[in-house]
Design goal:
Blueprint: H1 3-43, H2 45-78
Length: about 80
């Protein structure tokens, strides 16, 4: 055996090990997300978050409408 074949085999083993670790490591990142979704769905956490976002959106719309009404009233007074 020459040095090149020994180094080639070691490099091939390292490449295979790296590929194996990359594939196994990527599956682990999905698991906490799946567990989180499984817990949030039955407890209603997602619904509460959605409700809070809708409420913020409606509050913003109401404040913009109030500003527009005030501006229209000011324009009528200035005429």
């Amino acid at each position: 055996m020459t040095i090149c074949t020994v180094l080639g085999k070691q490099l091939l083993h390292l490449l295979f090990l790296g590929l194996l670790l990359a594939v196994c490591g990527s599956e682990g990142t999905e698991t906490p997300e799946k567990v989180s979704n499984a817990v949030e769905a039955p407890t209603g956490i997602k619904d509460v978050d959605r409700y809070s976002q809708i409420k913020k959106n409606l509050d913003g719309i109401n404040s913009r409408q109030a500003e527009k009404r005030q501006q229209l009233d000011d324009d009528r007074e200035n005429q």
